[in-house]
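Support request from a user on the community tier.

User writes: "When I paste my C-alpha cells into the form, the page sometimes reloads and wipes my input. The last time it worked, I copied everything first. Here is what I submitted, just in case something in the input itself triggers the reload:"
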C-alpha cells in the first residue's frame, strides 16, 4: 500500500493476514476537521463529495473516531483512482493537519521534520514512486 504511505496515511496492511479490507487511520484529518465523531462525519462527507466511499469507523464499532475501512477488492487502476480521490478529499484539511503537525514539531525537536511536509509534497513523491 505504497500509495497510502505516500499520502502519509497510516494503515494496517503489514498486520493483515487475509481479506480485502484495510483499516486506515485518518485521525489527523478528522482532528483538523473539528475532531470527534462529528469530525469523522465531515471527512466522510468530503470523501463522498470526491466520489469515494470508505466505511467510517463509527459504522464498524471503532473505539475512537478517525478510522475508516478501505476495500481493495478492485482492479489496480480503480484502487489508484480511489487513492487519488482520497488525496483530493484530504487536501481540504491540509492547513489544519499541518498546523497540528507544526505544533508537535515545536514540542518534539527530535522528530523528523519530513512529518511536517505539506500534502502536495507527499503527493509529488507518490506520483514519482508509483
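"...and here is what came back when it finally went through:"
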Amino acid at each position: 500500500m505504497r500509495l497510502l504511505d505516500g499520502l502519509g496515511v497510516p494503515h494496517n496492511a503489514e498486520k493483515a493476514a487475509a481479506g480485502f479490507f484495510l483499516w486506515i487511520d485518518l485521525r489527523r484529518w478528522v482532528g483538523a476537521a473539528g475532531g470527534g465523531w462529528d469530525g469523522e462525519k465531515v471527512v466522510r462527507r468530503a470523501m463522498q463529495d470526491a466520489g469515494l466511499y470508505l466505511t467510517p469507523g463509527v459504522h464498524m464499532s471503532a473505539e475512537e473516531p478517525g478510522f475508516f475501512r478501505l476495500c481493495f477488492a478492485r482492479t489496480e487502476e480503480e484502487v489508484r483512482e480511489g487513492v487519488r480521490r482520497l488525496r483530493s478529499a484530504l487536501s481540504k484539511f491540509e492547513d489544519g493537519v499541518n498546523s497540528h503537525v507544526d505544533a508537535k514539531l515545536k514540542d518534539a525537536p527530535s522528530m523528523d521534520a519530513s512529518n511536517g511536509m505539506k500534502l502536495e509534497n507527499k503527493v509529488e513523491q507518490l506520483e514519482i514512486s508509483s
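Agent notes: The reload is a front-end session timeout and is unrelated to the input. The chain has six helices and three strands. Residues 100-130 have pLDDT under 50 and may be disordered. Escalated to web team.
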